[in-house]
Amino acid sequence: MSEKSVYHSGFAALIGRPNVGKSTLLNALVGQKVAIMSNRPQTTRNRIRGVLTTDEVQIVFIDTPGIHEPKHQLGQYMVLAAESTLNEVDLVLFVCDATEPNHPGDKAILERLKKTKTPAFLIINKVDAVPKTAVLTMIDKMNQQHLFKEIIPVSAKDGTQLEELKHLIAGALPEGPKYYPDDMVTDHPEQFVIAEFVREKVLRLTREEVPHSVMVDIEQLEYRSNGVVYANAVIYCERESQKGILIGKRGDVLRRVGQLARQDLEALFGSKVYLDLWVKVKKDWRNQQGLLHKFGFDDM
Fold first, then answer.
1. Which of 194, 241, 243 is nearest to 216 (CA)?
2. How many other C-beta atoms can be found within 10 angstroms of the C-beta atom of residue 132?
3. Which helix (H) or strand (E) is 121 found in, with range?
4. Is the dihedral of CA 43, 44, 46, 50 positive or negative?
5. pTM of the prediction?
6. Is 218:191 a contact under the CB 8 Å cutoff?
7. What are phi and psi of 171, to 5 degrees?
8. Is 218 helix (H, G, I), strand (E, B) or coil?
9. Which residue, 82, 186, 228, 246, shows the most beta carbons closer than 10 Å to its own?
């Protein structure tokens, strides 16, 4: 970057209803996995920050929980976390699903957008899965409902238009400094990242009510002299029957969770990782303020 060039930086929030691909899009834009992914709605529970730094711009993406009708205190926290972000950023990236046009959840979010002065991009994701005519129809209808600064059809899955999207975001951000070092892709502590990667594997390997009843807490994290990262992780669920499912026959499910999480974590840390996994029951933890605070959710 030359001395005369102007540097730009800012915060861009990804909002949208559950399961439209916000986390997949965040990872694709940053170029590295910083948010867990699942085909289950409401996978993201916290605001996840991913940082993209170039010679001209630093974009801090904030992936928010999907906006939905909450059924417990955890759900209320998730919706409040998403909505409060709208007025705290420089740009809102409203992500919709091209395979589900005219979804009532999108209309509800549009009403929230109308109440904020933050400029917004409409990002229509998953365009690889529908005909071009369907995308054009969706663009026309959404354009009539809100004045978006830009409308960009993309595919986080195959990379369609992602470079163009990054260019447009950079152009919409103000002049500013670098908020994070060049090599930082997320500002979340290691404990949070490890817990999320473990939870992602639980989402992948379990079914029915189990995934949404799970929270992971890292009780101990050590960087040992032999180069191994040691983590003692407790997987909390709400019922004894769920505990049995999580452990599995002869411990096979828990063992597989550990194997898959360790693979991702070793790629991220660049060193050997030892996961010591346990399963415990905390009845109805999603409705207990004290436990929500313990697990890192802000007071509501």
1. 194
2. 9
3. strand 120-125
4. positive
5. 0.71
6. yes
7. -70, -20
8. strand
9. 82
Residue found by looking up tokens 């940082």 in the block:
51
Helix (H, G, I), strand (E, B) or coil at 89: coil
Burial of 181 (0-12, 13-18, 19+ CB in 10 A): exposed
Q: Could you tell me if 285 and 238 are in contact, meaning their C-beta atoms sit under 8 angstroms apart?
A: yes
Terminal alpha carbon distance of the chain: 43
- Regarding the domain delimited by 8-172, which CATH topology (the fold level of the hierarchy) does it fall under? Rossmann fold (3.40.50)
Identify which of 78, 80, 124 has the alpha carbon closest to the alpha carbon of residue 99.
124
Q: Which residue has the tokens 């976390």?
A: 81
Residue 153 near residue 122 (C-beta atoms within 8 A): no
Residue 122 amino acid letter? L
Backbone angles phi, psi at 179, to 5 degrees: -85, -25
Domain residue limits, the chain: 8-172, 190-294
Amino acid type, 213: S
User: How big is the chain, counted in residues?
Assistant: 300
Q: Where are the beta strands (DSSP E) in 174-228?
A: 215-223
In a 13 Å sphere around the CA of 46, the CA atoms on its Cβ side amount to 21
Angle among Cα 80, 82, 84 to the nearest 5 degrees reads 65
SS3 109: helix
58 in Cβ contact with 52 (< 8 Å): yes
Picking from 88, 85, 76, the residue whose alpha carbon sits closest to that of residue 297 is 76
Task: Look at the block and give the residue holding tokens 């926290």.
Answer: 77
pLDDT for res 296: 64
Question: Which residue, chain included where needed, has tokens 């992948």?
Answer: 204
Class of domain 190-294 as given by CATH: alpha beta
Cα–Cα distances (Å) from 141 to 103, 112, 134, in that order, read 12, 18, 11
Helix (H, G, I), strand (E, B) or coil at 197: helix
Rounded CA gap, 182 and 31, in Å? 13
Give the residue ranges of the chain where pLDDT is below 50: 1-2, 40-45, 68, 70-72, 299-300
Question: pLDDT digit string (tens) for 208-244?
Answer: 667 678 889 999 999 999 999 999 999 999 899 999 9
